[in-house]
Amino acid sequence: MSRSNGSGDPEVLRAEIRQTRAELGATVQALAARADVKARLKESAVQTRDRVKQRAGQTTATVRSSVHDAGSVALRHPVSWAVVAAGALALAVVVLVARGRRG
Question: Angle, nearest 10°, between helix axes 37-76 and 10-35?
């Protein structure tokens, strides 16, 4: 780690010492940041929370769009939706009647 400029100039040596101290300080800060597990976990949790919020927003937008599209289809084809609803009602009646006969 020793760098010798060969000149023996005290000002040059002081400048080298300041540079070495600055590099050492940056290295110590980087190591301290890596060793701070609590802060790293907190940052990871913040990033995960932000990703989940973003995905939830995207999913909400997708669901709203799908519901709107389904409503539009129902309005364009009301007879087909009425047939589906009538079929579901008939199925429910059949299931209730069949349960009533067993019990």
Answer: 50
| pLDDT digits 0-9 by tens, 30-72 | 888 888 888 888 989 999 999 999 998 888 888 888 887 777 7
* CA 7/CA 13 separation, integer angstroms: 9
Q: Which pair of structure tokens corresponds to residue 36?
A: 């701070």
Nearest in space to 70 (alpha carbons), one of 81, 58, 55:
81
Burial of 38 (C-beta count, 10 Å sphere; 0-12/13-18/19+)? exposed
Rounded to two decimals, the pTM is 0.38
Q: What is the helix (H) or strand (E) element at residue 92, kind and residue range?
A: helix 78-102
Both tokens of 73, joined, read 């289809």
